[in-house]
Amino acid sequence: MSEVSVRAVTGGEVAARLEAISTLYQQTFAVPPNVAESPAEHRATMLSLLANPTFGCALAADSNGELIGFAYGRTLTSDRWWEGLRTPVPEGFTTEWDGRTFAVIDIGISPRWRRHHIGTRLMDTLLAARPEQRASLGMIPALEDTAAFYAATGWELVGRQDSPRMLAGPHRYSMSTCETWELPEAGKRLGDKYIRCRPRARGSTPGPVRCAPRRSTRTRRGRG
Q1: 28 CB-near residues (< 8 Å, 6+ apart)
Q2: Cα separation of 46 and 75, whole Å?
Q3: Is the Cα dihedral 160, 142, 175, 118 positive or negative?
Q4: How far is CA 83 from CA 10, 27, 94, 213, in A?
Q5: pLDDT by residue (tens digit) across 89-101?
Q6: pLDDT tens sequence across 203-221
């Protein structure tokens, strides 16, 4: 296998490779049971993310500089990420404050580079560059291989989630409201939410760590 570089990148670097990211996004998410945004919708999503000061991204490239993977997301600023969660969670678990949760929006790997640990390297690189206490993501329950990947890399299943009522359209998520995964079948908009927290101490074995809820001493912002 040729050498692969994986690194956290700036928004400017993402903007410069937006076309390549969009192409790889379509290769990754246009295959059922995924539900992909159209190229125009995905470009609008990326531009919205790039305008967000909390945006973070990691890219993977082969020895020729060709893009073979991406992972990106942003910090949560409201509790709406958790709306519709069916599974009971501890009090305060879904409460968000500045710096509590980084939401991984998308992670994609070129089909010919899968099963080479690129996804693990991308996720670790992305989260290592983040200051938040924990990270969360959502996925379609039908993606069993993806669920196995998350379980093996330190993610803990929180539970199943209904899509919020404001997401009535076919899109997998809406940056203006709440990100969530949903099944493509009409009337069955469900997704699984995962959480990953930082190890208790530097050098400890990676793996799921319970996030102890606490009361924020900061002034709560509006739901935006």
Answers
A1: 34, 36, 108, 109, 111
A2: 15
A3: positive
A4: 30, 29, 9, 17
A5: 999 999 999 999 9
A6: 333 333 344 444 333 333 3
